[in-house]
């Protein structure tokens, strides 16, 4: 073959590759945009990426790097500061919303938007859980459970148990040498949430639940590849094991009720879910009870465990803030009546500076970087059309790290909250609207109690690098040594 022929072959190959690439990049356009007719011309700027993968590869690449914000920044660089972009995320054509006003509307307008979590996520958390049930059902179950989770009386009741475990664990950690601080924190918060929702259970069951929840969480924001060796595959197996454990607990509770066995223990969340009836006398099915409990127990320990870890790290890294928070805790004890030995809910609510530390940690970490909604009808936002049926993602991380809202946003500075009330939509660590996280007050109570005792009597020496999937977390789970230093100053 002559040189000229070789060049012809090469040109044909390269042209073929170019055409093939062009076709592949247009597949999602043909599948999801072309059928919209004239509406496609008013879609937000962006692109739907490659078939099936969409924008997930660039999302995972960014969030597995040291610069997760490069994901949204790539949209801004290409399409400008529109605050709303189209993409193909988690298997669906989607719209990313990155402005406070847009996110507030998205979370509060129940007539225009409904929960829109990906099917892969629902398979892990449960289709009958709070995250996807219809609005009226959600409102009814929230009304049933809110007092048991966030009510004044409930929170006051939980304080002694939380204190008892925090004091015991901190003392134990000082004897263990180097520990994975995050791992220990998650076990502590898991023990607390188990007590609140299931009363005391055996150590064997508790350890089994905690282990499977860890595996489950790694798969929630992974690509939904149900093949051995992938996080999503392992997460599905973990869910099956969790369902089996919960089913055995439900069966035991139902048998006690059927046999009319007198139960002298306190009524917990499991009892409430088994007893609740609607206006027609319908009770929740086992599937509904299990999915709601699975979701509650996961949300109830993951966020508080991680945020407590990060708050401790940030305070240790900033001695001036540590000292200020410590002095506030010392003053609370000095004002305490001699007859009072432990914390009260009133004292926790007097921890004004510590509350700012927690809010600043929630902002910096943004534990849940997004929530999913789905457009119930064609909706106009910022002059762009969000088509009916498309997923809409409220991108909290971009808002919490917006320099126009929070100057020097990557600097940990609790004092930024002095005399500052965030505008609607600019601070969303627990979401907003009717589906605001139902356990937000309980989470802040747990964090406050732990930090109270840690600030007074303990120190650690963490050196932690960050990772961002499935949540913002230390790469090594924060290896540290806990020391008791009651007599020392910072």
From TrEMBL:
Source species taxonomy: Eukaryota, Viridiplantae, Streptophyta, Embryophyta, Tracheophyta
Name under which the protein is recorded: Ent-kaurenoic acid oxidase
Broad class of the protein's primary localization: membrane
Signal peptide start-end: none
Entry binding sites for heme: 437
A GO biological-process term: pollen tube development
Family according to the record: Belongs to the cytochrome P450 family.
Record GO cellular component, one term: endoplasmic reticulum
Pathway(s) annotated for this protein in UniProt: Hormone biosynthesis; Plant hormone biosynthesis; gibberellin biosynthesis
GO molecular function: ent-kaurenoic acid monooxygenase activity; heme binding; iron ion binding
Function: Catalyzes three successive oxidations of ent-kaurenoic acid giving gibberellin 12 (GA12), a key step in gibberellins (GAs) biosynthesis. GAs, which are involved many processes, including stem elongation, play a central role in plant development.
Cofactor: heme
Pfam families on file: p450
Transmembrane segments: 6-24
């Amino acid at each position: 073959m002559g040189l000229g022929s070789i060049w012809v072959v090469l040109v044909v190959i390269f042209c073929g590759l170019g055409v093939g690439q062009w076709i592949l990049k247009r597949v999602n356009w043909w599948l999801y945009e072309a059928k919209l007719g004239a509406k496609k011309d008013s879609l937000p700027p962006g692109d739907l990426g490659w078939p099936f993968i969409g924008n997930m590869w660039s999302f995972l690449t960014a969030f597995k790097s040291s610069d997760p914000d490069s994901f949204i920044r790539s949209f801004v660089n290409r399409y400008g500061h529109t605050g709303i972009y189209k993409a193909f995320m988690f298997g669906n054509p989607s719209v990313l919303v990155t402005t406070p006003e847009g996110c507030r509307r998205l979370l509060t307008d129940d007539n225009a938007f409904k929960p829109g979590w990906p099917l892969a996520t629902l398979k892990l958390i449960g289709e009958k859980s709070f995250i996807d049930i219809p609005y009226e059902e959600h409102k009814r179950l929230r009304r049933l459970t809110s007092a048991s989770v966030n009510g004044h009386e409930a929170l006051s009741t939980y304080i002694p148990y939380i204190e008892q475990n925090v004091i015991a664990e901190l003392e134990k950690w000082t004897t263990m040498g180097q520990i994975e601080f995050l791992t220990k924190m998650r076990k502590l918060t898991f023990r607390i949430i188990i007590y609140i929702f299931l009363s005391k259970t055996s150590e064997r069951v508790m350890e089994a639940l905690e282990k499977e929840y860890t595996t489950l969480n790694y798969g929630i924001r992974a690509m939904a590849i149900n093949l051995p060796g992938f996080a999503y595959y392992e997460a599905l197996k973990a869910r099956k094991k969790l369902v089996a454990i919960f089913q055995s607990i439900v069966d035991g509770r139902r048998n006690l009720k059927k046999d009319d066995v007198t139960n002298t223990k306190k009524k917990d969340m499991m009892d409430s879910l088994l007893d609740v009836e609607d206006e027609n006398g319908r009770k929740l099915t086992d599937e509904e009870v299990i999915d709601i409990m699975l979701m509650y127990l996961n949300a109830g320990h993951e966020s508080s465990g991680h945020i407590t870890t990060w708050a401790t790290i940030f305070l240790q890294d900033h001695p001036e803030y540590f000292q200020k928070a410590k002095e506030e805790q010392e003053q609370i004890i000095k004002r305490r009546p001699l007859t009072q030995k432990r914390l009260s809910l009133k004292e926790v609510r007097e921890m004004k500076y510590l509350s700012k530390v927690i809010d600043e940690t929630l902002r910096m970490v943004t534990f849940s970087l997004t929530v999913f909604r789905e457009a119930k009808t064609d909706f106009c936002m910022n002059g762009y059309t969000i088509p009916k049926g498309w997923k809409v993602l409220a991108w909290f991380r971009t808002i919490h790290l917006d320099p126009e809202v929070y100057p020097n946003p990557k600097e940990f500075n609790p004092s930024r909250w002095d005399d500052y009330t965030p505008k609607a939509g600019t601070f969303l660590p627990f979401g907003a609207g009717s589906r605001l996280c139902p356990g937000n007050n309980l989470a802040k109570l747990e964090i406050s109690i732990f930090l109270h005792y840690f600030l007074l009597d303990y120190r650690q020496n963490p050196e932690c690098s960050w990772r961002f999937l499935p949540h913002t977390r230390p790469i090594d789970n924060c290896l540290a040594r806990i020391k008791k230093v009651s007599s020392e100053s910072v």
